[in-house]
């Protein structure tokens, strides 16, 4: 008897089917589980006669990155921030170039908005209003949540963009002062954007800064939720990369995993993302199909700061960590 026949079979080889283990940041859950996974499985079965199952896990983007670094066998990761797959690449978990994928690996995007209590009793209309005395803000933890880092860039960058529109120069002192004043009112920092949303849903706090997608999902999943959505005048669009975790992908699994990742950029998958309130990064016209997506007066992206390679050390560390968080 060959030694190999005594070894346990991997999930991808047992039962005549295939399994894809995918780790995603928290707000990817609904669109993947309710639409993307079933559609891809049906397509693969139709074309290849083989069943494909998914083993998913969802948490804050920094958290899932740390889990992969610690050895979980994720084969595909979808992250909130580009810095996380870069960390995996530096440690040898990712050997391919995810930016060689369509749209440089970005499968969808969503702007940052403010959730307030119904009727907006605190009069919150833009990020600076969150600095008013007595406002209680829920904000995910920047240590574990990519969404939290996007939110910091949204608040700080919004003041830069608006001041630049008004005077021709970004007012960095005003942006810092606003961020410090807002953070002074943060009283709860859950581990992920989804946990922060749950905390708000339970009736805690006056405001939550979050993805537009999650704000809309919350309104739809709980018609009785005590909340309205406020659209800031200037806000950031978060952009979300998909990455194959090459260290955990066998030659046997590679074809189906490559096919699944490519599928995420198809019109069928992009339409599903828009249905669940993401914005398509592939075909902007699809976004017209969701009439609830807001119009942002002054949208910007992380490129405004020079990309994540500059935004993280300069804004998240140099400004938020060293000049805001430590002085609260």
What do these coordinates show?
With 328 residues, the protein is α/β, with parallel strands linked by helices. Helices cover 39% and strands 18% of the residues. It is built from ten helices and eleven strands. It has helices spanning 29-48, 61-69, 83-90, 146-167, 172-184, 193-201, 212-221, 254-263, 267-275, 308-324; strands at residues 18-25, 52-59, 76-78, 106-116, 137-138, 186-188, 207-211, 228-230, 234-244, 279-280, 298-300. Strands 1, 2, 3, 4, 5, 6, 7, 8, 9, 10 and 11 form an eleven-stranded mixed beta sheet that branches. Strand 1, helix 1 and strand 2 (52-59) form a beta-alpha-beta unit. Helix 1 runs antiparallel to helix 9 (267-275) and helix 4 (146-167) packs across helix 10 (308-324). The chain is globular.
Quick overview:
The chain is α/β, with parallel strands linked by helices and 328 residues long.
- In one word, what is the shape? globular
Enumerate the spans where pLDDT stays under 50 for 5 or more consecutive residues. 1-15
Number of β-strand runs:
11
What portion of residues belong to β-strands? Answer: 15-25%
Class based on secondary structure composition and strand pairing: alpha/beta
Q: Over the alpha carbons, how many angstroms does the gyration radius reach?
A: 21 Å
């Amino acid at each position: 008897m060959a030694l190999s026949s005594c070894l346990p079979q991997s999930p991808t080889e047992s039962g005549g089917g295939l399994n894809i283990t995918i780790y995603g940041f928290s707000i990817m859950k609904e669109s993947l589980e309710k639409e993307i996974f079933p559609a891809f499985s049906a397509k693969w079965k139709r074309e290849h006669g083989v069943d494909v199952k998914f083993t998913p896990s969802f948490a804050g983007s920094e958290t899932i990155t740390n889990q992969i670094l610690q050895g979980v066998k994720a084969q595909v990761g979808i992250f909130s921030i580009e810095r996380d797959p870069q960390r995996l690449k530096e440690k040898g978990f990712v050997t391919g170039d995810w930016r060689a994928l369509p749209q440089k690996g970005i499968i969808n995007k969503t702007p940052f908005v403010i959730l307030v209590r119904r009727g907006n009793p605190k009069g919150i209309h833009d990020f600076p209003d969150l600095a008013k005395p007595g406002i209680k803000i829920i904000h995910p933890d920047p240590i574990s949540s990519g969404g939290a880092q996007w939110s910091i860039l949204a608040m700080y960058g919004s003041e830069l963009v608006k001041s630049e529109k008004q005077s021709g120069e970004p007012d960095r002192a005003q942006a810092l002062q606003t961020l410090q004043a807002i953070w002074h009112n943060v009283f709860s920092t859950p581990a992920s954007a989804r946990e922060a949303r749950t905390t708000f849903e339970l009736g805690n706090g006056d405001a939550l800064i979050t993805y537009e997608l999650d704000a809309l999902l919350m309104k739809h999943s709980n018609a009785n939720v005590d909340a309205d959505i406020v659209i800031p005048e200037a806000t950031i669009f978060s952009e979300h990369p998909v990455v194959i975790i090459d260290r955990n992908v066998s030659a046997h699994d590679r074809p189906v995993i490559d096919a699944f990742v490519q599928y995420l950029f198809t019109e069928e998958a992009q339409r599903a993302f828009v249905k669940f309130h993401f914005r398509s990064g592939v075909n902007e016209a699809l976004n017209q199909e969701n009439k609830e997506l807001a119009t942002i007066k002054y949208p910007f992206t992380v490129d405004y700061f020079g990309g994540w390679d500059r935004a993280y050390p300069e804004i998240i560390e140099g400004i938020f960590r060293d000049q805001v968080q430590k002085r609260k």
